[in-house]
Structure formats: C-alpha cells, structure tokens
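Hi Y.,

Following your request, here is the sequence exactly as I used it, all 331 residues.
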Amino acid sequence: MNLGKVKKILVIRLSSLGDILLTTPLLRSIKKTNSDISIDFILREEYEDILVHNPNINKLYKYAESKLEKQILFNSIIAQNYEIVIDLQNNIRSRELTRILECPVFKLKKRHIDKFLFVYLKINKLKDAPPIPVRYANAFDMIELDDNGLDFETDNQPNEQLQTDEKFIGICPGAKHYTKRWPKGYYIELGKLLESNNYEVVLLGGKDDLDLCDEIAKELSNPINLCNENDVMQTAADMMMCKAVYCNDSGLMHLAAAVNVPAIAFFGSTVREFGFFPYKSNSLVMERDELQCRPCTHIGKKWCPQRHFSCMLEITPEDAIESLNLVMEQI
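Below is the corresponding structure, written out as tokens. Let me know if you'd prefer a different format.
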C-alpha cells in the first residue's frame, strides 16, 4: 500500500497517560510523510486532554464501556471508511473495534512471552528491543520516525506561585504500583536537601497522589503543592516552570519529556528493555541494574517479592542530588 495515496487513518490507544504520549512521534511522522492524511484517534475520555491540542490529529473519539455509547462509536467509525487502522492497544477492547472495520489493521506486537521469560526465568530476549515509540512505528511499517521526541501542548498558564525567578524543582512522587515508587521518606529527605541547596520544591501529581503530596509537603519548609485532580494541562504548564523534575517510572515522567523538562527518574522493578525509559529527552534514569532480581514485573507489584526492595532503597536522596548536578550541567 502506498501511504502517499492514503487519506484516512484510525489509531487506537485507549490508555493511559504515558502510553498515549508515546504515540505522538508516530502521529507526527505519519503526517510528515503525507500532510494530506487525516488521522483520527480513539482513547478513553479521561485522557482526551493529552491529544486535544495535537496538530496531527483530525478527530478524537472517546471510548466508553456502556453498550449504547459503544454502539454509537461503532457506527461513527464504520461511516468514515478508514483505509488503515493502527491498533497500538491490541487487547480485547481494541480488537472488538477492529473486527467491525473492513480495512488493513496493523497491530502492536506486545511480546508477552519474551516479557514472561525475562521476569520469571531471567532469560532476556529483549536486549535489543527499541523504545516504545519505535515499537509503535514498527507495528506500522510504512514510515520511519523523525529524530524528535514526544509532543504535548497546553494553553494553560502556570500557577501564579511559579511566576517568579526562583529555582523550582518538581517532585512527582506518584506511580500506580508500589514497586515503581521511590519511598515517600526518601522524597521527603530529597525535598529537604533541595531546600538546603536554595531550590524551591514543587509537588506535582494527579488525583491518586493527593494524599502522598500532602504528606510530603507537611515535612518540608515551604513547598508549593500543586497536585491536582488529574488536570494534565495544568500540570504540564506548572512543570514547564521547573528546572528539572524527579519522578518514578510513570506517566508524568513522559509528560516531562514531552514538555522538554529534564527528568530524573527512579526505576525499581522495571527495566530499560520494556521500552519505557524517557524518550529522546535530557533525562537521567537512576536504577540498580546489578540486582539479579530485576525485573520482577513488567508493570509493577503491590510489594517487593524478595521483601528487601533494594532496587529502590539503595538509591539514596544523596545519590539523587548528585544526579541533579549532572542534569543541570547538560542544560
């Protein structure tokens, strides 16, 4: 198929923050290959703001679980007569969508067996696996990615507390799973070290991080707590005022990359081979890659299977401050 003659493409990636941001190099590169292509995108309603201002998207469809809303969605996409579908979710829900369309479907290869072998038997067949944006592009073999990173645009203004000449450092302490979160106590100690080095600490996160950010804020001298109810537009605007951000292997790490803010990311149970290191950004990953128990999961766990949690506990706040100096030298 000649991409130059294609007029309408549908891309499916229903969730979540990081995974959708990682699709943006593919969207941009498709559009660069053929500026006349119309790219529509299906995602969950709660993630709409990630792509609402993306210039490469023609239309966003909101996926919902209810039978009525799903039928409306099905009817809408059938009527569009798409020539190509790129399924970057490749699960039961996305396959339910692709089955109703009579056009070529390109699917992400998830390499479940290779992940299983690596996690449970430590047989690493992912040594040469590229980052997720490249894997997305490999699912659709008609284009090559450009050399740029992730895309995100916000029209929000930063919080008025950040509109000064202070040296702001962001702390994004949240992550969905315990084994992907650097310990709260370490973030508190890091915050104190930052304050002693004349930085202003800015706490960032979403709805699930509100309590955690409050607990950290109470232990610091004068933090600016801007954790909110999943307002990614506002978080991005606030993040852009920071010299750098500390974060876990999370969606906010990818948001930092997308808005060109250096990130210092703590990786515990997950590893580079899974493809989620910061993509094409001035960032630094802190990990203990000599530990034989890593990776213990490819998504995260509620507890450390070995009960020692060395992958995170051995990365100290003092290590984190030294890493900040390295990142700042590269700015």
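The chain has two domains: 3-139, 160-330.

Thanks again,
Q.
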